[in-house]
Amino acid sequence: MWALKSNRFFRFILTLCLILTPWHANGAPDPAMFYLAGNGGSDRCRTSECMCQVRPGPKPSNPETIEEIERRYSAYFPTAVHELTERQSENLSSYLERLHELSPSARATVMAYTDGCGTAEYNNGLARQRLQTAVEETREYFSIRSTLIHPEAPPVCPLQEARRIDIIVHTTRRITTAIDKIPADVYLIDASGSMWPEWRRWTDVINASYKPGSRIYVSMTTGCRTNQTLNSIRPQGGTEIWYAYYMLLDRMQPGETLAIISDFQSDIPLRAWERRLLDAKVAERGVNVIAVRL
Q1: Phi, psi of 186 (to 5 degrees)
Q2: Cα separation of 22 and 42, whole Å?
Q3: How far apart are CA 293 and CA 26, in angstroms?
Q4: Domain residue spans of the chain
Q5: Class of domain 72-170
Q6: Which of 115, 159, 171, 272 could form a disulfide with 67 if both were Cys (CB 3.0 to 4.6 A apart)?
Q7: Residue 151: predicted pLDDT
Q8: 0.85 surpassed by pTM
Q9: Pair 151, 126: CB distance under 8 Å
């Protein structure tokens, strides 16, 4: 008798689980019904897929402190050139000397880019030559923490903004340093209401630091539109970062890197089966994902 009641109870619990968990006919959870933390999924968003693609704003013209914003120096090259002109070299030295007076113990990251003109092998070599030029100029003032090359970033020919070097003198602030270190192809930025206190400070950092050709999305339930500038966004609403993350993966190409910037202050914890589904989709799309928790 006890065994019969136990079997009935087990069947009741199993049936209840199947009713409460949304599924497609193919056996996968229905993405339209995702809670994925923070009040729900698309049924709670007026924006398409809980996000908008936006444009970077202008680089800050009145930075609060040199450590906060004026930490990146860019120099541009003609096609197939890797050496700085005498004027460029003087300007770079003056800039580095000024930062060294303010932060003598700071360290630097050096990055070099090319556009898509030429073969992949040629552009890789050209990027390394430009990197070496920048390293030689920088290490007279700062120790080099890391170096990166981005050949064919993006693969457009010709593209002046991609024929350049960047030298970043790092702040001691953890958040801006973390963002500087991410050579992302796609940024997904949480623009929910809880992000407001630090919003302007670090959107300025992104405007100054984003990789040429990268794409920027903000996760919002309402209050944004496609092609809006990042500077004009006003954080509001609940957190839907997980749903936007899931849907954004469909817009990415294999090998691309996604940087998610959020405080992840969701009302409902991400459930285990949702996390497994996200991990599986990342693997299926062949992309890299880095999270910066603010």
Answers
A1: -135, 130
A2: 14
A3: 34
A4: 22-63+173-294, 72-170
A5: alpha beta
A6: 171
A7: 81
A8: no
A9: yes
Q: Output the pLDDT for position 43.
A: 67
Phi and psi, residue 74, nearest 5° = -120, 140
* 3-state helix/strand/coil string of the chain: CHHHHHHHHHHHHHHHHHHHCCCCCCCCCCHHHCCCCCCCCHHHCCCHHHEEEEECCCCCCCCCCCCCCCCEEEEECCCCCCCCCHHHHHHHHHHHHHHHHHCCCCEEEEEEECCCCCCHHHHHHHHHHHHHHHHHHHCCCCEEEEEEEECCCCCCCCCHHHCEEEEEECCCCHHHHHHHCCCCCEEEEECCHHHHHHHHHHHHHHHHHCCCCCEEEEECCCCCCCCCEHHHCCCCCCCCHHHHHHHHHHHCCCCCEEEEEECCCCCCCCCHHHHHHHHHHHHHHCCEEEEEEC
Q: Is there a contact between 169 and 106 (Cβ–Cβ < 8 Å)?
A: yes
**Distance between CA atoms of residues 101 and 124, nearest Å:** 34
The angle subtended at Cα 204 by Cα 203 and Cα 207, nearest 5°, is 85
- Residue carrying the six token digits 């050949």: 151
Give the separation between CA 172 and CA 224, rounded to whole angstroms. Answer: 32
Residue at token pair 């903000």? 218
- Tokens encoding 49: 């897929």
Taking the C-alpha atoms of residue 31 and residue 50, their distance in angstroms, rounded to an integer, is: 13
Instruction: Extract the tokens encoding 269.
Output: 């914890």
Beta bridge partners of 257: 288
With tokens 């914003």, the residue in question is 69
